């Protein structure tokens, strides 16, 4: 609802009419302070820098005392090197955006590899968690004024992939959050879309709403688009917003890695019949769904990288995250902020 509409509502004096109008289209949920990886890293960097600086000053002072010189010299050397590394990394972070594109791209690739390693470790830690257990189970747990959001994971993933983004969205005021476990990697995307169909039917019964927002990562974007094209209309589901992160809408050469043993991977190969038909149908069909496709220049899973820029829909926009790799999308504050802003409009 636009600002002018809210001004019109405020001019109405009848409380009953006012409450009814506000319940039809509530304002976007407020952003709430919560744990953020980037903020935590910045604080840790600051504290570590202070500690190393203090150690450097103390050890440098102790070197003036002959008896303590050997120990102080070691502490001085270690502190100097560590602090130098931290300052170099901080300086590199500040100057990287202003470097020539080839050098900047190289730096972003290095960062992507490092963050990708950390992200994979994080996924291993949360692997035992089944996030679908956190889905609302009763109507009382749902917000009747909010459109449900379904989060669909990618290839080899599961519901726990959304543990960070769900945390951010929940603290931003989104209550009707649902995740899904699609199943093993040997099924087809068609099978996965049927699983989404069953989940959406359950969401509709639980929330008594026909509208839906979809948040996807990687292969989940193809699954979500397949659901929209084949099943949404048949159950009266209106997908209003669709946010994707690193989805290979044109396929990816990484899909050859399973050596043909995975049907869903075969469907994600570049120029496969599946992606060709899916994109063709998306470009021909007029839909009300608004799309936001986030992609990256340093995504080592999506080849060609242009594949993640668009899904064929005429009602789509794209956003590039320069230094975010494929798995790090799942822990990106920038991606979370973009999704929150997009879902709130």
Automatic annotation (TrEMBL):
The keyword Transmembrane helix applies. The chain crosses the membrane at residues 45-65, 71-89, 110-129. The keyword Repressor does not apply. One of its GO terms (molecular function) is hydrolase activity. InterPro entries: AB_hydrolase_fold, Lipase_EstA/Esterase_EstB. Keywords: Membrane, Transmembrane, Transmembrane helix. This is Conserved putative membrane protein.
């Amino acid at each position: 609802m636009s600002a002018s509409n809210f001004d019109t509502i405020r001019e109405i004096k009848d409380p009953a009419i006012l409450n009814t109008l506000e319940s039809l289209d509530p304002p976007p949920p407020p952003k709430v302070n919560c744990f953020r990886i980037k903020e935590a890293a910045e604080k840790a960097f600051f504290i570590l820098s202070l500690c190393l600086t203090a150690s450097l000053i103390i050890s440098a002072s102790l070197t003036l005392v002959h008896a303590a010189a050997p120990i102080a010299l070691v502490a001085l050397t270690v502190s100097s090197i560590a602090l130098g590394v931290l300052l170099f990394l901080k300086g590199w972070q500040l100057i990287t955006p202003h470097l020539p594109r080839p050098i900047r791209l190289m730096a972003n690739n290095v960062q992507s590899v490092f963050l990708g390693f950390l992200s994979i470790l994080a996924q291993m830690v949360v692997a035992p968690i089944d996030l679908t257990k956190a889905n609302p189970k009763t109507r009382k747990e749902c917000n009747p004024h909010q459109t449900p959001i379904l989060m669909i994971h990618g290839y080899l993933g599961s519901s726990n992939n959304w543990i960070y983004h769900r945390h951010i969205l929940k603290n931003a005021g989104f209550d009707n959050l649902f995740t899904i476990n699609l199943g093993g990697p040997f099924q087809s995307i068609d099978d996965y879309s049927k699983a989404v169909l069953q989940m959406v039917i359950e969401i509709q019964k639980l929330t008594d709403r026909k509208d839906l927002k979809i948040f996807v990562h990687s292969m989940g974007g193809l699954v979500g688009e397949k659901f929209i094209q084949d099943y949404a209309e048949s159950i009266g589901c209106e997908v209003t917003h669709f946010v994707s992160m690193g989805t290979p809408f044109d396929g990816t050469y990484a899909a050859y890695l399973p050596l043909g043993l995975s049907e869903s991977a075969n469907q994600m190969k570049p120029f496969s019949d599946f992606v060709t038909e899916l994109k063709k149908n998306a470009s021909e069909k007029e839909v009300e769904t608004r799309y936001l496709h986030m992609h990256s220049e340093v995504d080592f899973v999506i080849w060609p990288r242009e594949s993640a820029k668009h899904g064929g829909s005429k009602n789509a926009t794209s956003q590039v995250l320069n230094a975010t790799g494929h798995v790090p999308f799942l822990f990106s504050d920038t991606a979370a902020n973009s999704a929150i802003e997009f879902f709130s409009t």
